[in-house]
Design a protein that fits this description.
The chain has 103 residues and is α+β, with helices and mostly antiparallel strands. It is built from three helices and four strands; from the N terminus they run H-E-E-E-H-E-H. The protein has a single domain, classed as Ribosomal Protein S5, domain 2, CATH 3.30.230.
Length: 103
Amino acid sequence: MINDLLKTGRRYRSEMLTVYRDAGAPDEAQTYAVAFLIPRQAGTAVRRNRIKRWLREDFRNAQKKRTIDGRFVVRFSGPADSANHPALTEELDRIFGEIKADV
């Protein structure tokens, strides 16, 4: 699933994140599945897992604000030291705005 989505999904980019999206089938409306790709070069396992927790929380909060449906792959790039939760939240919100504009 992840490789297919990376090849065929619609791509949205920001400074630290690249989000690949594939709209779900009509019967899967208002549901989403997400996978996070954080490369080892980003930092230690503790830092990579912290970024994943932040992004999971941001997806849950975004689902409460707006309808998110489809399959997503979120790829983080850059060092984990430069990432903080408010900056990632802002980037993900901007990407969700682009996705809403495309739909």
